[in-house]
Write a structure and sequence with these properties.
mainly alpha, globular, 14 helices
Length: 362
């Protein structure tokens, strides 16, 4: 009777893993503190760099792209600030979750933060890939029909969608639970009931965002290569396009390497029905959190201004980049010219044959 009444009085977030937990090694506490401090500092520097660049830029498409970058920096910074403060506080004070949060409000808030700040970078990466795809393949429609307010609206919509998904466990689709070693909360990764549905929603949405980014970025790269191989007067504009695509590709590569192991692990666990292996969950989660540290350095380092400071003797313009691979451009031009000549010769021969034909008999 006492055991059943205790089970009925146990809040949902403590029904699987209930405190108190075993003491955490000092190495984990140091890792969390250094990780949070480094990530916050990196994102703060990146935000200052982006703000200065945004004020100086006069390129319309680049200003759109920098709005997305600003949203990504703010998302990474707030994610580290919210989740890192809770984890570091637990390592410092070793508080008891049951005493501090008897109704699971703090645990649910941290679980929602983990889902929200996990999905936002992936979805923002997909939105940036869509924006660059339209800007490169349909530049006239992009520049004439897309004001800056619409770009801000797209960032807000990504935040809204991720926030609605993070709220699903509070409506009964999934549930947030305390996770071992007791310093964090996350949704329950299980193959049963509504937990199965929410686990698939989280993992498949993340994987779909990465797939959309990869597909659209590939098409944009091919289009840029075709454009850069030809002669054009808009070299400065294309220099900005190449710079943005390099940054976007690096963001995509970092997000794929950091998040794919965790997303695949979640989908594989719930689809196979195997028990959750906590050591792999912690390992892949640490891989995913590296995304918030590596992202800002893409904006800080991968800029033409920074590259010119690092190597001032090199010319980082499009013409110099294409001159490093002249054979590719020459090959494309020779192939295009030869195909045009053969086509013109065939048409000329056909016209001669038609002129030599006798007139038709009455």
């Amino acid at each position: 009777m006492n055991a059943s009444s205790f089970a009925n009085n146990t809040p949902l977030c403590y029904s699987i893993n209930s405190p108190p937990f075993r003491p955490i090694p000092n190495a984990s506490a140091y890792f969390s503190s250094i990780f949070s401090a480094l990530g916050l500092t990196s994102n703060l520097i990146a935000f200052v760099v982006l703000l200065k660049s945004f004020r100086r830029t006069h390129n319309r498409s680049r200003s759109f792209f920098m709005i997305f970058l600003g949203g990504l920096v703010v998302t990474d910074f707030m994610g580290l600030l919210v989740t890192g403060s809770i984890v570091v506080s637990y390592h410092v004070t070793h508080f008891n979750w049951r005493n501090l949060d008897p109704n699971c409000h703090l645990c649910n808030f941290m679980g929602m933060s983990m889902v929200f700040y996990g999905l936002c970078p992936l979805m923002l990466g997909a939105a940036m890939a869509i924006e660059r795809f339209i800007g490169i393949n349909h530049p006239f429609a992009h520049s004439s029909s897309m004001p800056k307010s619409r770009t801000v609206f797209m960032v807000l919509m990504v935040w809204l969608i991720a926030g609605c998904i993070a709220l699903l466990p509070l409506t009964g689709i999934g549930s947030y639970h305390m996770q071992i070693p007791g310093s964090w909360c996350f949704f329950n990764i299980s193959s049963k009931g509504n937990d199965f549905a929410f686990s698939l929603i989280f993992s498949l949405l993340g994987l779909m965002s990465i797939a959309v980014s990869f597909l659209l970025n590939t098409v944009s790269i091919v289009t840029l290569i075709k454009v850069c191989c030809g002669q054009s007067k808009n070299q400065r504009r294309r220099d900005h396009e190449i710079e943005m695509m390099v940054q976007l590709i690096l963001i995509m590569v970092i997000a794929s390497n950091c998040w794919c192991p965790l997303l695949v692990f979640i989908a594989q666990t719930v689809l196979s029905g195997s028990p959750l292996q906590i050591k792999y969950l912690l390992l892949w989660l640490r891989f995913a959190t590296f995304n918030q540290i590596l992202d800002p350095w893409v904006y800080i380092l991968c800029r033409r201004a920074m590259l010119k400071r690092v190597a001032p003797r090199l010319d980082w313009s499009r013409s110099s980049i294409m001159s490093l691979t002249p054979s590719f451009g020459d090959t494309v031009r020779r192939f295009t010219r030869s195909s045009l000549r053969s086509t013109m010769n065939q048409e000329t021969a056909g016209d001669r044959r038609k002129s030599n034909l006798p007139p038709p008999s009455p």
